[in-house]
Amino acid sequence: GNDFILIDNRHAADPLLTPARSAALCDRHTGIGADGVIFLLPPPAGSAAVCAMRIYNSDGSEPEMCGNGIRCLARFAADVAPDLADPAGALPVHTLAGRIIPEIVPAGLVRVDMGAPELRPDAIPALVDVMAGGRPGRDAVEVDGRAWDLTAVSMGNPHCVIFVSADEARRVDADLERIGPLFESHPIFPRKTNTEFIQVLSPAELNMTVWERGAGRTMACGTGACAVVVAGVLTGKTAREVLVHLPGGDLSIEWREEDGHVYMTGPAEFVFSGVVAP
User: Fold this and answer.
1) Catalytic status, residue 66
2) What is the pTM of this model?
3) Catalytic residue among 66, 72, 160, 226, which?
């Protein structure tokens, strides 16, 4: 669903490209065109990871992590550095959100152990209350002249999850470029937020529209899909295993009760390779 430019940066500890250069490459009219630039880096000293990941969004900002991006990084690493993964295909990656472990699985899919969701408002961060069942949210947040019920979740980066009806989903989709930034920069999210609008088809199936912090409307968001299932379980709207439909394709998400971790499974496909000047 997302598309990324991936850079083999293993010979240097810092990204080879500046945020401004990365944003220029992401421009779909004058650059290559992408949702972000991802750097495959060496791991920090003393890390239990075998490599590191940094990412610049299409606007040049740097998020803590990117779920779909780390799936693409795992596929990229399997091509350029197959010796990094262990015999089972697991690839421990250091990110600004901590260590994340993607794994190549059959049928060209990548499964990622995204770790446990963060629900403490000060850690999301979000200026919200903790509601019944440990759900972080508010009964009503004022945006664009109306009240919206939300659930705030962090999957290493902040997410604002809003459940909507089919009619509301259509209206949101038609007006996303206007209302998306209002949620992204809402004062209850000190570091801004990603925002997901969710139509529940069944307890095991959802439709998702996303406005990403620093990227705008995108075809998919892996951490967002994970946050959505966590919010669905907390609000009693979904089961723990859910198929999430996004404009760019489907993701299978499981919030395991046994270890509290969220697992995301989906494809990652090579498009083309090339060389760019720094």
Assistant:
1) yes
2) 0.87
3) 66
